[in-house]
Amino acid sequence: MTTLVATEDEMMLRDAARGFLDGAAPVANLRGNRDAGRGFDPALWTEMVKMGWAGVLVPEDQGGSDMGFAAANILSEEMGKTLVASPFLSTAVIAATALRAVGRDASHIAAGEAIYALAVDEGAKFNPETSALRAEAYRNGFKLTGTKTFVAEGAGADRILVLARANAGLTLFDIDAKAAGVSRTKMDLVDHRDHADLVLDGVEVTGEDVVGEVGGAMCALAPALRAGQAAVSAELLGVSAGAFGMTTGYLKERKQFGVTIGTFQALQHRAAHLFCEIEVTTSAVMNAGRMLDETPDEAALAVSLAKARASETAGLAVREGVQMHGGIGMTDEYDMGFYMKRARVAAEWLGDYGYHAAQVARARGMAA
Against a cut of 0.70, is the pTM above it? Predict the structure, then answer.
């Protein structure tokens, strides 16, 4: 893969994001959110909105900054380095892209007036094409009945994009999270972020709640999923970099028998290998963002490659981090364990390694 070079604008955005997040959102914030029983800090999200991050993919005439997918990936990567918990991925990336794809207004997203969740999963693995939640014709609209699981930001969202199966085919709905018939149960996942199970029991919606056309869910959902998968890949890259930095810092400080363990050749080789893996994954993530900006209809392969690589790299980074830290790596008092937990959950969201490896194989004509 050709090595990609960041533009001056991308470097300025990265520096600005890192400067803000280092002060406003260190890893200690995740611990604070967990102890307070919340998925994210609303005050931090308000600051992100003021900085234009909520509108990163919203057109300027709707109040957005419209910086593009590569920029969204940069923000997501920088958040991953300190495990920032926020509705950025579900709202500013996925929902904004879905609404934009079908020409719906997203000014409420840019203004920070709504937090979105995406409800597509119904089983243990990501497979939106098999969604069974029913959209039955009722009066001038529909009734939605069924369940969804692993809904990121599902407990705290104001609105939910729900994938349902109508007679005409898969249809995407934009519904009020507090509508009659919607019940949400918070999931206790290891990364302490906001995830929920949803039950929809005859939720009444109108034609205005349909995102795009009845039976045409993928016109909005496909680009939104690709944008979300690329941004999750970027977050996983940030998780890898954060874990790597913490690990190399420890290797330079920790001594055994009066010798700094970073001088041990075996550990140096493992650190060097991880560094190389992160560099290759960086190129894959950058390429996915560039493809989404420049040739979005041809970006599926690049996005799946980035998600598969980022999942594997993050898994390697956190395993090496925990092992090189020894026993303290898994204690609650030390932050490395938080990186491992986030890497595990993010690797599953919007398709795990197996799902995206299969997509890559199919795109290259290697699948059966």
Answer: yes
